């Protein structure tokens, strides 16, 4: 299936009945937008006895991704439509993620609590994650994958294509990092642009949105419930006691068969 959440697009392979083993090489072939299908992330659905399904994520460069919030919401919506359920749980590297039908075409997922210690993100050395030692004074967070958030005066003027990969590959991040540039545009209202590790610029990113919301609250810029404007649309984040809930729309574009 080709699916997307706010333009953050995915190829979803349903392996619950078995299927071709995914390798990094196969992932990069499918990711090719000219010779394959094209995606920001690849998601593979498998059976598990611990949840309604297990999901594994790959980046466009074939590397594994520990979390992908928008793909999780897309798959949850697909499975809810399939079963008629209004809530379910998906198992990912992030752990067990509860998903809920929020009505009006919106799907919510609990992405878990943000991790803020330098070892959890992880960073290469001990440092204050609220003020990382990089130009621009970013915040470090993990939502199952590393995030580096810069708060800027104007997100539109940031050269994301240049600054994003520079930060992604900074030695401070041994597993590389996702990079966000966020601007406060109103009370509890942010504008964000994102560079995803292993993929590049994307129209939206669920885990990045959660990380930005957590970073903004830790910095005292917002409350725990925020609206974020992404290149692909609007997403709502609510950092509750049980984790960071993300709510937004999803779309199923088409279903197809890959030819070997």
Task: Write a short abstract of this structure.
With 260 residues, the protein is of the alpha+beta class.
Task: Explain what you see.
The chain is an alpha+beta fold and 260 residues long. It folds into 2 domains: 2-108 and 248-254, Diaminopimelate Epimerase, Chain A, domain 1; 139-246, Roll (Diaminopimelate Epimerase, Chain A, domain 1), CATH 3.10.310. The protein is 17% helix and 39% strand. It is built from 4 helices and 17 strands. It has helices spanning 24-31, 69-83, 160-168, 206-218, and strands at residues 2-5, 8-14, 41-46, 53-59, 64-65, 87-92, 95-103, 106-110, 139-142, 146-151, 178-186, 189-196, 200-202, 225-230, 233-240, 243-249, 251-254. The protein has a 17-stranded mixed beta sheet that branches. Helix 1 links the parallel strand 2 (8-14) and strand 3 (41-46). The longest helix is centred in the N-terminal third of the chain and has 15 residues, at 69-83. The model has no long low-confidence stretch (mean pLDDT 97).
Please name the defining characteristics of this protein.
single chain, 260 residues, Diaminopimelate Epimerase, Chain A, domain 1, alpha+beta, 4 helices, 2 domains, 17-stranded mixed β-sheet, 17 strands
Report the end-to-end length measured between terminal Cα atoms: 16 Å
Mean pLDDT: 97
The CATH architecture category of the largest domain equals Roll
Proportion of helical residues: 10-25%
| N-to-C series of helices and strands | EEHEEEHEEEEEHEEEHEEEE
- In percent terms, what proportion of residues is strand? 35-45%
Class based on secondary structure composition and strand pairing: alpha+beta
CATH class of the largest domain: Alpha Beta
For the record, what is the CATH homologous superfamily label of the largest domain? Diaminopimelate Epimerase, Chain A, domain 1
